């Protein structure tokens, strides 16, 4: 039971329906997941969010599967179950193997462990990791 | 000024010195960054952390550059400056371009935005994203 | 199933019952939500938490509806489902419209996105945003 | 020292310069803060981020000062110093008094405290806070 | 440079001065750290925060050193440098050894790692860890 | 329904079965909780995680009950339900009373509140809390 209802196709405003049509066209599927159906109660929020996501996840300098894995990693760190499940499914659909998921989880866990150690000890940044001030 | 001192080579216990020797051998460099020099005050913590990191970041099903980028993404989500700077440097050393860093940041930002929307609206997980209970 | 039981009125200690009476008087309702019923197993924790909340949420320089919206925003960022649901209900009871909720969510999402970008890039604070050292 | 340089006006690409011109026009000021000057190294990221922020922070159902205060609250919860300082400055410029900032901080602190109590005790959501399933 | 000034003794309002007098009496020291000097600009926030802290950190079912170590652990997880440094100092003053700090850090790191693994894999809670519904 | 299945004993690989045997021997119980049964799909991740946990939670400078309470506190701050429930059960099994749990929760809540106040006000660290640079 979400805060806003999970809208069915026949309950959409014209602006929300247009966004759904674009999601279907870009993703080449008729399946619209609940995230968009809940956002659809606020068409301006729906439209802006989809527009941004479409740009960010489009093919570019990074492989689409890598982008989905980064999305999963951040969603774990932020503790969002919906996002973990939906983007794990998306990453698998883009070719992520279970062995790759295992390594992703290992990196996320390890990074969280060393993040806390570095923060807890207030480790000073090495000069070697700072940009050259002459070029900044 | 860290909570524990940044130990110099001549201040190391024999156990910590042995870990440093392994870091240098595995990484093929004489440079030991401050994270390890601060951990060195607790040789057991140093040894276990390095042993885990060595296993997790070793070549496997994921590309080493991808692993470093996942590390950066999690470090941003966890808010650890030291880790962001050191692993951004490591990812660049493994070939990450500035265009790839830009896309990584875009995914981290976008994921954080949609994580909050899904959480704030308590979006229910789609059946399609759940594992098949028959095989679970 | 909570870690501590959801206490019924007849299960309360005298000290917890007195806190419940104050909650009912201040809120002008007989409804006591589960948060307080679970805290009631530790009357000192219950009493101190209610006392603080009563002071913080009382009318002051900020509108009560604005305070509830700030509460919702922080609860989303901290990932607390109970708090998101209870304070969204409270904000609606104090007049928050669905259009206002949509804008609240948009700000929470956008802030989370730019928070990660500023952190990921380690943007230096502008002089213009720092307090005047002469008056500090 | 940021991960990417703080670009000066004469170092901007034409696309970044166009975004800066729009920021100046919308904000009615010649001051461009470092966040945008650092993002400017990736004009696509700069343009999309500014475009979203402009929409989200525009006048709407919520008062602009309230939006800035929500931004500050989320930035505190996410631990972003840059964002806390820049949006506290923006909220003050839009009329936030120090008494209002004090109450904002009190709500953010209180919400974080009760968020942890509700999570730590795994308090079950009250039926009264759930949407009516008949209308969902 | 804090958002509010670090007030000197001669700049305090009478209400803030009274809180400082109580801090000195309870802690048996003349040293007032910056956290309270900054909060002093909002005497109501100062008074309520000190009153809560005094109750929470008072001797009780838990050892004062253990309370300070829990404070440090939470401050690391929340990423608050000021709080890590001040409560690490307080824990040392209450007898925490460097070996104990090392084990504290190891637990914080390990917990953060397994937290992410359990969240990333969405591990279902074992029946054995749930309260007995008959007694709830 | 977890992302990976909850493996039964007869579904384990030989390497995972060996880890389970060690868990049973160290913990002196035949009960293996779901966390390990889900990790078992990736025997390398299972083995490394158990090996680390065994070292971190072994008797040392800190009392085992204190270690479990630190684990609970961090799990609350990180928002991991599974971890909160399993380590609260473990802490109780090691002697944590309900009064001690109440104080633990009070410290976690209070620390989260003051963490946000210190971060929101950007309180500068007192000289007294910094290590002596001469010895660093």
Question: Quaternary arrangement of the chains shown?
Answer: homohexamer
Shape descriptor of chain A:
elongated
What's the number of helices of chain A?
6
H and E string of chain A: HHHHHH
Mean pLDDT of chain A: 96
Ends distance of chain A = 50 Å
Q: Supply the helix-strand structural class of chain A.
A: mainly alpha
Most extensive protein-chain contact, per-chain counts = C-D, 71 and 71 residues
Q: How many discrete domains of chain A? A: 2
**Largest sheet properties of chain A:** none
Any low-confidence stretches of chain A, pLDDT <50, length ≥5? Answer: none
CATH topology of the largest domain in chain A, by name, is AhpD-like
Named at the architecture level, the CATH assignment of the largest domain in chain A is: Up-down Bundle
Q: Count of DSSP E strands of chain A? A: 0
Gist of the model:
The structure is a homohexamer. In chain A, about 65% of the residues lie in helices and about 0% in strands.
Question: Please, could you describe this protein's structure?
Answer:
The structure is a homohexamer of 136-residue chains. The first copy, chain A, is mostly helical. Chain A folds into 2 domains: 1-58, AhpD-like, CATH 1.20.1290.10; 60-122, Up-down Bundle (AhpD-like), CATH 1.20.1290.10. Chain A has helices at residues 14-27, 34-39, 43-57, 64-78, 81-93, 98-121. Chain A is elongated. The mean pLDDT of chain A is 96. At the D-E interface, helix 5 and helix 6 of D face helix 3 of E.
